[in-house]
Amino acid sequence: MIRLALREMGARKRRLIGSLTSVFLGVSFLAGTLVLADTLQSGINGFFTDAYAGTDVSVRSSTRVSTLPGRPRGMIDGSVVERVRRVPGVAAAEPMIQGNGQILRADGRPMDSDGPRNAGNWVADTELNPYRIVAGRAPRTVDEVVINKAAADDAALKVGDRTVVLTPSRVPVTIVGISRFGEEDALGGSTFAAFTLEGARRHIAQGQDRVTGVAVRAASGVDDDDLLTRVRSVLPAGTEALTGTALAEESMNEVNEQFIGVFRMAMLAFAGVALLVAAFSIHNTFSIQMAQRTRESALLRALGAGRGQVLALVAIEALAVGVAATVAGLAGGYGVAVLLKELFAAAGMGFPVEGVVFKVGTVLIAAPVGVIVTALAVVVPVLKASRVAPLAALRESAAERPNRRSSESRALIGVSLGLVGGGAVVWGGLAGAMPITAAGALTCTVVMVLLAPIAAGPVSSLLGRPATRLRGVGGGLARRNAMRNPRRTAGAATALMIGIGVVTLLTVFAGSMRASLEDEVAGSFRGELVVNSGNDLVGGLDPALAERVAALPQVASAAGLGRGDVVLDGKEQDVTVADPARLGRVLRLDVEEGRLGGFAISRDAADDHGWKVGTAVPVTFADGARTTQTVTAIYGSPGPAGDYLLPRSVWSAHERQALDMMTLVDLRDGASMATAKTAIGEVVRPYGAPEVQDRAEFVAAQTENMNAFLTVVYVMLALAILIALLGIANTLAQSIHERTRELGLLRAVGATRGQIRSMVRWESVIVALFGTAGGVALGLFLGWGLAGAALDSFAAPPVQLAVIALVGGLTGVLAAIRPARRAARLDALTAIAAP
C-alpha cells in the first residue's frame, strides 16, 4: 500500500506542489514568528542578566505603582546607603540614581532611540557597573558625563565634545568618556548619560539626598541569601531588598508578560491566519483529487481492497505531504525570521538584538502543527474517498455530485449561526462589549465558510456577467465553469476570502482609530498648535516650557500635559498631570459637576467607581507617600486629558523629574499660524527642538507608529494572500486536467488558444473576485463591530479598500497565468482522446 501511495504521488507530483507549497509557507511563517519572539526574548533576557550580573543584593523602594516595563520605582532616602555599607558581609554598596536624560546632538536635536533615554550616576565599582569605558575616563565634576557608544556613534560625538543633556532642564556637559554595556554598544535601544554621583544628585534628584536604589556586592564567601537576610534587617520602612538574580528574573518576567507575550500572540495570530488559509487550499486540492480518483478508488474496492486500505492509501499520501512540507517549513522559518526582523527594522521598529535564536521548542510546536493542519484539512476528502462503492467503477459519473440534502442542512446551520454571530457583533459594537463582539466575529467567519458553497453559484453568475459582455463566448464559458461546481469555486475562494477579510478588518480598525483621534482633537482641543515630544518613556518636555510659550505675544494660552503612574483607591492607574485651570483654557472638558482646580475625573471614571464631587480618593505615589485627593470636578469630554486629571502641584511634590508629553497652544485671535509656529520653534529649540505641529500634523504623528505597524501587518498578511493565490492556481490546474477532453473539443470546434487562455483567466478572476468581495464585506462588518466596541468612531478608508479590492482581482489574474498557458497548449486531438 505504501508503494502504491508513493507511485500515486509520483504520478501527481505537479498537482501536489501547490499543497506542499501552502503547508511550507504556513509552517515557515509559524516557525519564523516563534524564532523571532525567542530571539527578542533571549536578547532582552541577556540584557537584564548582564545588567545585574555583578549585583548580589539590590535595595529599592517597596512601593509599586505600575507593572509596565520601563516604569521606575520612586526614590528612597540616601541614608540607606550608609546603613547597608555597615552590614557585615558587604564588600561594596553603591548608590544608584537613575532617571530621564536626553542627550542632544551637536545641532541641538535629541538622539534617535528605540528605547528609554536614561541618565544616572557613574558607578565606580567595576563589578557593580555593567558599563565599561572604552575611550576617555570616568566623570569627575558635575558637568562631565560618560555616554554609551551607540549614542556617541549616532550623534558623531567624541571625547572632549560639548553638548547638552535634558533632565528635563538643560544641563551643558563635556563628554569625557565613551562606554559599552558589556559587549554591546547600548542596553537595548536606549541611550545613557552618566554623571558623577553629585552631578546625578543635582540634575536628576533635583538636589535631594535621594537615590533610586543601592547595589550591593557580597564579600568573598558570603552567600547571597545570607547577605539578603542581613541587609533586610537594617532597612527602614518603605524599602525592600532582593537578590540580583531575583531582580533580573522580575525584570525579565515584566517585559515578557507586558511586551514579548503580546508580541508573540500577535505574531502567532498572523501565523494562524496563514495556516488557516493553507488548510483551505489543501482541503480544496485533495477534494478535487479525490473526486477525480473516484473511479480509481472504486476500482480498487472492486479488486478486493477494503475501505481501510483505500483510506490508508490516501492518508499516507496526505501524511507524506504534511511531513515533507513541515520539515522544509522548519528550515524556511529561519529565513522568515531574518526577513521579518529586517521588515520591522525598515518600518522603524527594529529589535535591539543581533542574530536569531532557533530553539528546540520551535520544532516541538511548529512540526506537530504543520502535520495536524494537513491531516485536518484532508480528513473529509479522505473519508469520502474511502466510502466509494465498488460498482461506481463500472459507470461514468460526475467528479463531484451535488447533495441537495447536505446543501439544505448547510444553509440552515449557516443562517442560524449567522443570525447569532451577526447579532453578537451588532450588540457588542453598540454596547461597547469587546468580548461579545470578538465571539461574534469568530462565529461570522465560520458562517462565511459554511455559506460560501451556497453563495458561490449566484455570486459567480453576477460577477461573471461583465466577463460575458467583455469577452463574449470565452467570458460566458468562464462564468458557467465557475457556476457549475459551487463547492470547488467556494473552496478556492475561501482561502482568499479569509486573507482579504483580515486585511480589510485591520484597515478599517486603523482608519477608525485615526478618525477617533481626529474627533477627539476636534471636539476637545480649542487651540491650533501642539508642541509634541513623543512620549515620556523616550523623552519629555520641561514643564516650564509651557510658561515660556504662553508668554509669546501670539499665544493666548498654553498648557503642558504629562502622564504619571499612581495607585488610586488600591488600583494601579495612569493619570494625566496638568494645571487644571490652564488646561481648561485649551481643552473643552465640558465640566458637568464641580469646578476645575483639584483632582478631576471623567464621567466614565465616575460611573465606573461610583465617585462623585466631594469623594475622597486614596492615592499612593511612587515615592511611597499616601495622600487623599478629593474629587473637585467631573467632566464629560476627556480627550487628551484622559479619565483622571491630577494637579501638577500635587504631582511635582512626589516626582523629582516631572515631564510633559506635549504643550497645547491656543493662539490669539488674528495671530498668524506661520508666525506663531516660528516663534514657538525658537522658544523650544533649546529643549531638543520638539515638533511644533498643527492639528493635522499632530493627528498624523499620533498615528505614525500605527501606520508603521500596519505596513508590517500588510506585508505579513501578503503571505496568506500568496497561499490563497497558490490555492486558486492549483484548483484551476486540476480543473483543467479534469476538463482535458472538454478543452480539446473546444479547440476542435474552432476555439483559439487566446480564447482558451481568456476563459481560464476570467474563471480565475471570478473566483478571486468572489473571495475578495466576501472578504471585504466580512472585514467591513467586523471592523464596524470592533470599532464600536473599542473606539468612538468608525471610518472605512475608501482608497485603501479600493487597493485591497484591486489586489484581490489581480490575484486572480496572477493565479491563472500558468494554468491558462497550459490549457492553451493542449493539442486538440490528444485532448479529445484523453480518458
From TrEMBL:
KW Membrane (keyword) present: yes
All copies of domain MacB-like periplasmic core, residue ranges: 21-233, 489-681
Keywords on record: Cell membrane, Membrane, Transmembrane, Transmembrane helix
Transmembrane segments: 262-286, 310-340, 360-383, 411-430, 436-463, 489-510, 708-733, 765-787, 799-817
Domain of life: Bacteria
Main location: membrane
Coiled coil stretches, renumbered: none
InterPro entries: ABC3_permease_C (IPR003838), MacB_PCD (IPR025857), Macrolide_Exporter_MacB (IPR050250)
GO cellular component: plasma membrane
Residue ranges constituting the ABC3 transporter permease C-terminal domain according to the UniProt record: 269-388, 715-826
Membrane-protein topology: Multi-pass membrane protein
Pfam families tied to this protein: FtsX, MacB_PCD
Gene Ontology molecular functions: transmembrane transporter activity
Protein location: Cell membrane
Family: Belongs to the ABC-4 integral membrane protein family.
Annotated protein name in UniProt: Putative ABC transport system permease protein
Species lineage: Bacteria, Bacillati, Actinomycetota, Actinomycetes, Streptosporangiales
